Amino acid sequence: MQEHFEPLVLGFTCNWCSYRAADMAGTGRMKYPPNIRLVRLMCSGRLDPTFILKALAEGADGVLITGCHPGECHYIEQNYKALRRVSLLKRVLQPMGIEPGRIKLVWASAAEGMHLTKAITEFVDEIRALGPLNWPARTQIPISAKPVRQLEELPG
Amino acid sequence: MTNNTKPKFAMYWAAACGGCEIAVLNIHEKILEVDKHFDVAFWPVAMDAKYQDVEKLQDGEILLTLFNGSIRNEENEHIARLLRRKSQLLVAFGSCANEGSIPGLANLSARAEIFDTVYGTPSTDNPQGIRPQAEYQAPEGTLSIPAFNPVLRPLAQVVDVDYYIPGCPPESHQIAAVIDAVIAVLEGKAQLPPKGSVLGAGTAAVCDECQRTRNVKQIKNFTRIQNMGEIDPALCLLEQGLICNGPATLSGCGALCPAAGAPCAGCYGSLPEAIDFGARMVSSLASVVDEFDPRKIDLTMDEIADATGVFYRFGLAGSLLQTGKASWNEE
Fold first, then answer.
1. A89 shares contact with chain B (CB less than 8 Å)
2. What is the pTM of this model?
3. Which of residues 6-45 of B touch A (CB under 8 A)?
4. Is the pLDDT assigned to residue A144 strictly greater than 70?
5. Is residue A64's pLDDT more than 80?
6. Which chain B residues are closer than 8 Å to A57 by Cβ?
7. Is residue A10 helix, strand or coil?
8. Given this model, what pLDDT does residue B246 score?
């Protein structure tokens, strides 16, 4: 482990709750560590697990996903999908050597600026304790991102 | 090797099982078309040839090389680079060359663990506990064998690849269609597809070709095929609690496995717009699990035996993360 390790954490926030909670933290001058970079999504249910894998593959040490409390989703029940995705993804990543603690799901309503700053601070500390991930850089675009050509569509 | 004017063809197997070669031979009499239009310059499974024969060729002298197998050791890597230099068109043929396939699952383990499994289990007759060494000092001098790379790589992570034909193995009718297309190009009747294209596959998901009945999915429990008493012959396998990779897998096979009652393993790789196969499966399964209590969700997910191995059975080495930490730590 490096001596002065500052984790790089990517945070996904929901437009309707946690993003506003972060806004509230800002206007209320509540402090949270600068290690987190927040990305706004329309809903935690918008979070494709690909985003998390890409973040980890390209330098993030941890990923924080935040959304509305269960039962309060703007889109009825999409935050439950986020809950299931995170649960399953942790199980997929553990055998690859990625500790489940590097991914965390936190519920924060628009009124919970203080709760969110506390959760971010805690998560950054947890990642600092886990140490750097340092995933090696990707060398190639995965095969699946390549165009498929139907043979009958080929130029004649 | 004959000195004629037919364009040269090569096929090579790196870290592979040989199934791809069988699939090529399964095109039956169409193989005669290959012989009619091509001079087979190098094909270790089908005819005797030495690596020096390939080295003696001019750069780009081989028109078409089908490369199956992944890059496991130095020899695979050397031949991949050699064939790239000698070939005008290099095709990653089959799942191993495309995205690592089954051998790619070794990327979850460190080299020592892999050797222990292969050379050190109680059923292995190896009383001296010998492990392969890249170099050995014999009385006659130093002997060397190709070193085992810490990370298995698909072909495109080592050399530039022109086309991709997925599948484990690629379906013979798809191979035949590609051969027809290549011959049409040779005869001036068609043009080559754009570089980097995936050939010999469909464009939709395996579910699209699957004949089983699909309903709104609400899954509370996952199981494994050996734990099931009877399988409904007409109902979607996922709805019966089996992990079927069909929703994330590129079509082209005709949904053979689900038709036979086995869940799709995912050998054709993922859909064109998707970046990571495992992420697509995590996403789609999470959407259809019908549990809302965090504790129950965890219990349902625990029922998926070896989630990493199931979702990345064919695509680990070609995925976003490419390898487990144990392997790249040694690189």
1. yes
2. 0.92
3. none
4. no
5. yes
6. 320-322
7. strand
8. 96
Query: Domains of chain A: which residue ranges?
Result: 9-138
Q: For chain B, what is the HEC assignment?
A: CCCCCCCEEEEEECECCCHHHHHHHCCCCHHHHHHHHCEEEECCCCCCCCHHHHHHCCCCCEEEEEEECEEEEHHHHHHHHHHHHHEEEEEEEHHHHHHCCHHHHHHHCCHHHHHHHHHCCCCCCCCCCCCCCCEEEECCEEEECCCEEEEEECHHHCCCCCEEECCCCCCHHHHHHHHHHHHHHHCCCCCCCCCCCECCCCCCEHHHHCCCECCCCCECCCECHHHCCCCCCCECCHHHCECCCHHHEECCCCCHHHHCCCCCCCCCCECCCCCCHHHHHHHHHHHHECCCCHHHHHHHHHCCCCHHHHHCCCCHHHCCCCCCHHHHCCC
The whole-number pLDDT of residue A134 equals: 87
Residue A15 pLDDT greater than 80, yes or no: yes
Q: B8-100+154-186 adopts what CATH topology? A: Rossmann fold (3.40.50)
Q: Is some CB atom of chain A closer than 8 A to the CB atom of B147? A: no
Residue A146 and residue B189: Cβ atoms within 8 Å? Answer: no
CA distances from A38 to A65, B65, B253, B292 (A): 10, 47, 42, 27
**Encoding tokens for residue B10?**
């090569």
Q: Which of residues 168-207 of B touch A (CB under 8 A)?
A: 177-178, 180-181, 189-191, 193-194, 196-203
Q: What is the pLDDT of residue B16?
A: 95
The answer to whether the Cβ–Cβ distance between B325 and A87 falls below 8 Å is no
* pLDDT interval class at A106 (50, 70, 90): very high
Rounded to an integer, the average pLDDT of A15-31 is 96
CA distance B205 to chain A (A): 12
- Amino acid letter, A144: S
Is CATH 3.90.1570 what the domain over A9-138 is classified as, yes or no? no
- pLDDT digits 0-9 by tens, B63-97: 999 999 999 999 999 999 999 999 999 999 999 99
Where along chain B do the CATH 3.40.50.700 domains lie?
8-100+154-186
Low-confidence ranges of chain B (pLDDT < 70): 1-3
CA-based nearest residue to B17, from B45, B40, B42, B39? B45
The shortest C-alpha distance from A29 to chain B (Å) reads 33
- Report how far residue B301's alpha carbon sits from residue B140's, in angstroms, rounded to the nearest whole number: 58
CA angle, B32 as apex, B28 and B33 as ends, to 5°?
105
ipTM confidence: 0.93
For residue B185, give the nearest of A149, A148, A144, A147 by alpha carbon.
A149
